[in-house]
Amino acid sequence: MLTCTIAYILSDEGFKRRFGVQRTTFIEMLDCLKSQWRPTPKPGPKPKLNLEERVLVTLEYWREYRTYFHIGSSWGVSESTVCRCVHWVEDTLIKSQMFHLPGKKVLLQGGITVTIMDVTETPIERPKRRQRQFYSGKKKGHTLKCQLIMNAETGAIVCTFFGKGRQHDFKVFKTSGVHFHPDTKSLVDKGYQGIQKLHDNSELPQKKPKGGQLTQAQKAYNRALSKKRIAIEHVNARLKVFRILSGRYRNRRRRFGLRCNLIAAIYNQEYAQSA
User: Fold this and answer.
1) What is the C-alpha to C-alpha distance for residues 89 and 60, in angstroms, rounded to an integer?
2) Bridge-partner residues for 136, per DSSP?
3) What is the CB neighbour count within 10 angstroms for residue 27?
4) Vertex 273 angle, CA 117 and 151, to 5°
């Protein structure tokens, strides 16, 4: 049976590989949860897992995305206990200001010079109803889409938005209600054709004309733009270290956005510390 002593036995590098976050981030999560934690609730039985163990169980669930049953058998508790612990940690952290994204209102303030926007997809179980709405022709399966907007200068994620797999990337953007400041430059990919009508200060790749070819200057422009946009692909890769975002999502879809926002806020926290 695992205990919280594993957090102290592992090296800093091993802790990062095991749970997906730095040890300092784990300590910050504990500090954020201590005010809401009651080690001896009244009335009610004493919790089977202490605060440190609850956070480790949650991180392990995100990182490995094993079932509640398998994680519970590793920690010596029932799967319902693991479910309650994970939900409590998630709901408490998302309410705190420490693990919270700036939000789309920041984009209108004009303090951000350049943003990069992209959509990533996470496969899901085949829905019982309205399957067509979630079917992605690009991924050839049922998916959920997550739109990320990051600050190109700081590398931090500003806001997110979520859509169904069938929705086009540009449709997800229009549904999100995101508006950029006129002085903010937005770097996007070919999936956002038509964004110039909504935001003039946008850069997207040159599209090859039907029956024609791109010029050398247009190809050079596309390569230069791709080099600028590669930063958000690196962000996607770091977020998908947590298998709950990269593997087939089995949970209820209504908590998908909450978990994406939490993991994105944790990424911001760690990126700011390493900068």
Assistant:
1) 12
2) 141
3) 13
4) 20
Q: Report the C-alpha gap between 42 and 207 in whole angstroms.
A: 64
Instruction: Output the DSSP codes for 160-219.
Output: EEEEETTS-HHHHHHHHT----TT-EEE--GGGTTGGGT-SSEE-PPPPPTT----HHHH
Q: Quickly count helices (H) and strands (E) in the chain.
A: 11, 6
Going by DSSP bridges, is the β-strand pair 185-187/141-151 parallel, antiparallel, or unpaired?
Answer: unpaired
Counted residue by residue, the chain has a size of 275
CA–CA distance, 166 with 169 (Å, rounded to integer):
9
Kindly tell me if the per-residue pLDDT of 6 is higher than 80.
Answer: no
The pLDDT of residue 41 is above 70 = no
Task: Supply 22's token pair.
Answer: 């730095």
142 and 126 in contact (C-beta within 8 Å)? yes
- In the block, tokens 């592992």 appear at 10
Sign of the C-alpha dihedral computed for residues 5, 1, 86 and 67 taken in this order: positive
Which residues contact residue 235 at a Cβ distance below 8 angstroms, ignoring those fewer than 6 apart?
Answer: 148, 150, 155, 157, 267
Checking if the pLDDT of 2 tops 70, the result is: no
Q: Is the peptide bond before 41 cis (omega within 30 degrees of 0)?
A: no
Q: Specify the pLDDT at position 225.
A: 92
Tokens of 141: 């399966």
How is residue 144 written in tokens? 């959920």
Q: Using alpha carbons only, give the angle 75, 76, 79 rounded to the nearest 5 degrees.
A: 85
Write down the residue that tokens 């709950």 correspond to: 244
